[in-house]
Amino acid sequence: MSREKEQTAKKKLLMGKIDYINASPVYYGLDHGLKPEWIEMIEGPPAVLNSMIKNSQLEISPVSSAFYGMNHKELMILPDLSISCHGEVLSVILMTNYPIEELDSKTIVLTQDSATSAALVKLVVIQKGINPNFITGKLRTVSDVPSDADAAMIIGDAAMSQPWEKRFKYRIDLGNLWYETTGLPFVFALWVVRREIVISHYDEIKDALEILYKSRQEGYNNIDKVIAAGAKKLGLDNGYVGRYFELLKCNLDELKVKALKYFFLSLYQNSLLPEKVEVQFF
């Protein structure tokens, strides 16, 4: 079959793309010639992509891990793709004026952009036996922080590029905090497909998955370019962004699947999820 006929034969897939630099290696190839005509890319922050796939406005997308947990009956995980870390991550932080143990009855602002990081903070404070007041809002710049906030959870590009130390005393890396507590990696985001289209779009999903793998490989083959583009976008030093991409991983191996299941179970046991999560892969 010719390339033109193949393109015509394929059913269109709407694919979400995180607008933070953390997924840049995964999308590098797609951004540099690998994207076929039958895939349409739609860019947005994690919370927007979460909402879009829930509302059937996307077929495939990265989503917050906790969002998958909340919607596991409607979604299937694409294998070996994630945004994860094994310790420090730099881009998911709790900025606070008090040690975590002293945040009881204090006000913590959670970013509206991530279900997973918010769930992780709630899990940590429950496990530490403290009961803060949580509010949710936009946290892209220091000026977004309410004047009465004692702590703020920030993710993505803003966590690395904004001068949060001007407002808060302590920076707590949540990837590192999880690792110190559990000895496990942490999976912040997963790539998923809507379960209802798996049969009708099976070939397209399978091909899209292979394209994502090739795209990621090209990203790591050109990691210096990925780093330079990320540093330019955020106004940061290449060395700092290079360290970020050494810490951040985009695979999903057996240990990370184990960590993901442990996270979901912990959320369920602490009443942060209404039911046990069944982890199912495409």
Features:
282 residues, alpha/beta, D-Maltodextrin-Binding Protein, domain 2, 2 domains, 11 helices, 42% helix
Q: Identify the quaternary structure here.
A: single chain
CATH class of the largest domain: Alpha Beta
Strand order across the largest sheet = 7-6-8-5-9
Strand content of the residues, in percent?
15-25%
For the secondary structure, the number of strands is 11
Q: Helicity level, as a percent range?
A: 40-55%
Summed up, the domain count is: 2
Uncertain stretches of 5 or more adjacent residues: none
Question: How would the global form be characterised?
Answer: globular
Determine the N-to-C terminus distance: 27 Å
Architecture (CATH level 2) name of the largest domain: 3-Layer(aba) Sandwich
Q: What fold name stands as the CATH topology of the largest domain?
A: D-Maltodextrin-Binding Protein, domain 2
Tally of separate helices = 11
What does this protein look like?
The structure is a single chain. By secondary structure, the chain is α/β, with parallel strands linked by helices. It has two domains: 3-84 and 186-269, 3-Layer(aba) Sandwich (D-Maltodextrin-Binding Protein, domain 2); 92-182, D-Maltodextrin-Binding Protein, domain 2 (3-Layer(aba) Sandwich), CATH 3.40.190. The protein is built from eleven helices and eleven strands. It has helices at 3-9, 24-34, 46-54, 65-70, 115-127, 156-161, 174-182, 202-221, 223-234, 238-247, 254-269; strands spanning 13-18, 39-44, 60-64, 75-85, 92-96, 107-111, 133-137, 151-155, 170-173, 186-194, 248-249. The chain has a five-stranded mixed β-sheet with strand order 7-6-8-5-9. The protein has a four-stranded antiparallel β-sheet with strand order 3-10-4-11. Strand 6, helix 5 and strand 7 (133-137) form a beta-alpha-beta unit. Helix 2 (24-34) crosses helix 8 and helix 9 (223-234) crosses helix 10 (238-247). The longest helix is centred in the C-terminal third of the chain and has 20 residues, at 202-221. The protein is globular, with a radius of gyration of 19 Å. It starts with a helix and ends in a 13-residue tail after the last helix.
